[in-house]
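Lecture 7, part 2: worked example. A protein chain together with alpha-L-arabinofuranose.
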Amino acid sequence: MKKKVVSLLVAAMTVASLTACGGSDAPAANQEPAPAPAEKQEAEPASAEKQEAEPAPAESQAETPAPAADGEVISVGFAQVGHESDWRAANTKNYQDTFSAENGYELSFVDCDNDHAVQIETVRGFIEQELDYICIAPIQSAGWDTVLQEAKDAGIPVLIVDRAVDADPSLYTTALGCDMVAEGEAAGNWLAEYLNGEDANILVIEGSVGASATLGRTEGFNNIVAQNSNWKVLDSQSGDFTQAGGQEVMESFIKSYSDFNVVVCQNDNEAYGAMDAMDAAGITYGVDGDVTIISFDATHDGLQYTLDGKITCNVECNPLQAGFAEGVIKKLQAGESVDAWTLVVDEAFVAPGITSNYAITMTQEVLDGRAY
Ligand code: AHR
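Predicted complex, written out as structure tokens:
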């Protein structure tokens, strides 16, 4: 049975009230300048964007695109982060399926291989090609002002997808994705409930440096750490959202720390690597082990490990986001305004035998219903 997912849904309701679905108070986002938000962070100097970088070749998804209903083929460029995780593979497939020739799109897809400079040059390439729309899943949040200004000057609507940028929102059309801070807080709130006052010696395997997914999950989790005086974060290192990275960081943690009872992995692939490292070192984990593992993403395999009791809590980050991007594009095609921000809502899952106010208890049925 579905449990109440308090923190994520509170965040969802807060943001949903700013979106079209929830009745919008948010300003319509378009290419017109809008005031910068009060808490806008400084972006990296423009020089950071000027590194030489060869854009990876775009894979056109449509040799002979079928026209949209009104006969117009819509060209969309997607500057994707890379292929670092199962989550990313599901997200890429979702975009390729949605923006297909059959659906009336010509998708130029570029895997930027986790290289910020390549991603900037990829976007420049899309601008030069005068594509109708540009979607960017930003590898890092800083360093976007210059190229976003170039897209705006060219009159090309930009959708910031999945992760966020530290840039003036007037430079892009809309943003959509999950609330990474809420995800981190959900993990922390669940842990507090689970430990019920017990001490925690925590090791964190972070995602890629500078990515908003990393920054947000870290911030959110640390918000809850600050409320628990008997919790200690012993160390926090980047595993780059990869299985190899997770394994390497965990191996080094094992050499440095002997007394830990919680490992937080900021995505499922890192958790797989961390489990390999703990298996090799003879450290037990999971509901019956010495170490509690928290993961993020809740992909199919991650939830299988949760069902098996190896990952005790898995906080979702939903990769099926292309439909939201297509919804924005359809509105813009129709001359309608779009919201500044659309939240993709997440849930959290816990191993069988655990009941939680913050997460759904895993069952085979939940796993079978997983589309990614
Ligand atoms: O931005 C989403 C994150 O990026 C996912 O958690 C991770 O798996 C991916 O690489």
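Residues 91 and 319 are 5 Å apart (CA to CA). The pocket of alpha-L-arabinofuranose is lined by residues 84-85, 87-88, 162-163, 213, 241, 267, 296-297, 317 (CB under 6 Å). Keep this in mind for problem set question 3.
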